[in-house]
Amino acid sequence: MPTSPTRRWRIFSPPRKQSRRRSPTARQGWARPTTLATEQLARAAGVKFVHVPYKGYAPARTDLLAGNIDFMFDVWSSSAADFIKSGTLRALATTAPTPDKSPDNIPLISETFPGFKATGWTGIFAPAGTPPQIVARLSDAIARTLRKPDARSTFESSGYEVAYASGEELAETMRKDDAELGALIRALDVDSN
């Protein structure tokens, strides 16, 4: 928010460690990617944040606009982009992995904290035991759809990077995420239920 005390990204760099004030931040559930990204940032910066619970992004964003919290991780969506473009919200940094993936040249968190990685993905699943030929047909239809320019444009205009992954590739991504984020979740003593 333009009137927030959190005016620049560097506020989370090492000098912030000496501050006694703990920035309030939104938490939309413990097992959400945005909450885990906040915890990853806290650990990388050596700071602690006050987690204020919300039932989703919209009420958290409302409190951010009202100045009740200092910052939040949010998914890049058309509504978030509209707030930023209008000057109502200030984008401090992005979890994008590389500068070319950063919307509107927003600084990367990994530039300040090398190795920082917090990305999300969306997968499409079928019930266990679905016949392989049905899975193959669905997978082929999804891949064809994601190659269509109008479908890609719809996703990309909402801030999504469009990439197709096979079921095997998705399973590997899930294994890697489980190994990387599982340790953080266990350290936080988070119950995913």
Structure summarized in a few sentences:
The protein is mainly alpha-helical. The protein has helices at 33-45, 57-66, 78-86, 109-112, 132-147, 149-157, 167-188, and strands spanning 24-27, 50-53. Helix 1 (33-45) links the parallel strand 1 (24-27) and strand 2.
Q: Which helices and strands occur, and which strands form pairs?
A:
Blueprint lengths: L23 E4 L5 H13 L4 E4 L3 H10 L11 H9 L22 H4 L19 H16 L1 H9 L9 H22 L5
Parallel strand pairs: 1-2
Main β sheet profile:
2 strands, parallel
Mean pLDDT: 81
> How does the helix and strand content classify structurally?
mainly alpha
Instruction: Provide the gyration radius in Å.
Output: 18 Å
- Runs in which pLDDT lies below 50 for 5 or more consecutive residues are none
Strand order of the largest sheet: 1-2
What separation lies between the terminal Cα atoms?
32 Å
Helix content: 40-55%
Instruction: Please report the total strand number as a whole number.
Output: 2
What gross morphology would you assign? Answer: globular
| Helix-strand sequence | EHEHHHHHH
The proportion of strand residues reads under 5%
Q: Total helix count?
A: 7
Structural summary, described in words:
The structure is a single chain. This protein has seven helices and two strands; from the N terminus they run βαβαααααα. The protein has 193 residues and is mainly alpha-helical. The protein has a two-stranded parallel ribbon. Helix 1 (33-45) links the parallel strand 1 (24-27) and strand 2.
